[in-house]
Design brief:
Elements (H helix, E strand, L loop, with lengths): L2 E4 L9 E7 L6 E2 L4 E6 L4 E5 L4 E6 L6 E3 L3 E6 L6 H22 L29 E6 L8 E2 L2 E2 L3 H10 L17 H5 L10 E6 L4 H16 L2 E9 L1 H14 L5 H15 L5 E3 L4 E3 L5 E3 L1 E3 L2 E3 L2 E2 L7 H16 L5 H4 L4 E5 L18 E15 L2 E15 L5 H16 L3 H4 L1
Length: 427
């Protein structure tokens, strides 16, 4: 008997999926465990294995198209089996589900009061089913025109005349784009002797993929619902630089400064559970475990895989886990388990030369810490000005869960640990 394969829900926030590629075609024999298709969720592209077996009788979503969660992805059954009734019933069920969802959110109206006239808004542009190829559009800012001549004299602005004289450009050869063909400053600046004026505007537009849509939605919700406040601190990194060098030379493990930040963060959070919290609407959860999300840029957006129980891991174990996540992120192989369950997030742009920035909280986390680059600057030590290596960090806190003094105390402990790396193991 034929069985319907539904579009899976691959993450908590996924509402629709895109079939990136089919690995089977209609008529192929499918065994349980066979790779059926690759599906793009709002976070990553994941391989989807069949839980059923049979002949692939119907493909409900073509490659490159999107469809809601729980809609028909495919139908498996016996060769030659009639599936028209199955498709019809499934489509009716999907329509009923949509209608029920609308009824659930429909506002109640009083019979005695007429409903207010709806405001007419422009219909939204339909969401493209596939990410369109970049389309470049060009349009001239103004048509090139022959120089305007009045009584045998070229009409030009005083600034254009001065600039043409400085550049030794004959105004009689410059097309004017001003009123009536009048030559203005931009005409002289864009003039190419013996050529044409390069004064065309151009742009490229691409559709939002599923990941970018969810990033925009979730960060907007966080930024506009959570009252953020920010605390910035300078950290002396001289000892951390020396400690990292010793670890690399002594143990042969190439740990990064970001690995040291994650380790120091985990130790500081154990001492300040008021920052290791989650805001859950009507309550605040103070977490005993420390799961640190590490923000990673990928080609189509941003992912935050989680280093679990980071306070119990050695610096080398944290380094190995972060490297593994980085490789998986670049290859789109992170799974929902990899990015779920953070209690605090670290975002580091120091490797891009960014000195300081602020991050938007990764809800429901109560805080996120932005890490800038290490910069060599003059510092005062023992009443003398000497070269020093300083790193700026900025803690973003949700004021509904964390107060300023609590966030400041956490930063002080974090600073103490990084400036004295031996404390990563002693505290």
């Amino acid at each position: 008997m034929a069985e319907v394969v539904l579009m899976p829900k691959l993450s908590d926030t996924m509402t629709e999926g895109v079939v990136a590629e089919w690995h089977k075609k209609v008529g192929d024999k499918v065994e349980s465990g066979d790779l059926l298709a690759e599906i793009e969720s709002d976070k990553a592209t994941m391989e989807f294995e069949s839980f059923q077996e049979g002949v692939l009788l119907h493909i409900g979503v073509d490659a490159g198209q999107n469809a809601p969660v729980d809609s028909i992805l495919a139908i498996l059954g016996e060769e030659g089996e009639d599936i028209a009734k199955i498709i019809e019933d499934a489509e009716k069920k999907a329509k009923n589900n949509v209608a029920e969802a609308k009824d659930d959110v429909a506002p109640e109206t009083k019979p005695s009061e007429p409903a207010p006239a709806p405001k007419v808004a422009p219909a939204p542009a339909p969401t493209p089913k596939t990410t369109p190829a970049p389309a470049t559009v060009s349009a001239p800012t103004a048509p090139s025109a022959a120089p305007s001549v009045l009584n045998d004299k070229v009409v030009a602005s005083p600034l254009a005349r001065k600039l043409a004289q400085e550049k030794n450009i004959p105004l009689s050869q410059v097309p004017g784009s001003g009123d009536g063909g009048r030559i203005v400053k931009r005409d002289v600046e864009n003039f190419i002797p013996g050529g044409v004026v390069n004064a065309r505007e151009s742009f490229t537009e691409v559709g939002l993929n599923s990941m970018r849509k969810v990033i925009g939605q979730r960060l907007s919700e966080s930024k506009f619902s959570a009252p953020h406040f920010y605390l910035t601190l300078d950290i002396d990194m001289d000892n951390a630089i020396a400690a990292r060098k010793s670890i690399i030379e002594g143990k042969g493990t190439k740990v990064s400064f970001n690995d040291m930040v994650v380790k120091a963060t985990a130790k500081a959070l154990k001492q300040h559970p008021g920052v290791n919290c989650s805001f859950l609407g009507d309550r605040v959860r103070y977490n005993d475990h420390v799961n640190i999300g590490v923000a990673m840029a990928v080609e189509n957006g941003l992912l935050v895989p989680v280093v679990r129980f980071a306070d119990q891991l050695s610096l080398q174990e944290i380094s190995a886990q972060v490297k593994d996540y980085s490789i998986k992120a670049k290859e789109n192989k992170l799974t929902p388990d990899d990015w779920a369950g953070s209690t605090f997030t670290v975002s580091n742009l120091g490797m891009f030369g960014i000195e300081q920035f602020t991050s938007i909280i990764n809800s429901p986390d109560g805080a996120i810490m932005a890490i800038g680059g290490i910069k060599q600057v003059p510092v005062v030590k023992n009443n003398e000005i000497v070269p020093g290596n300083v790193m700026k960090v900025t803690l973003s806190c949700d004021h509904r869960a964390i107060d300023g003094a609590i966030g400041a105390a956490f930063l002080q402990t974090f600073k103490l640990i990084l400036e004295n790396p031996v404390l990563m193991y002693e505290l």
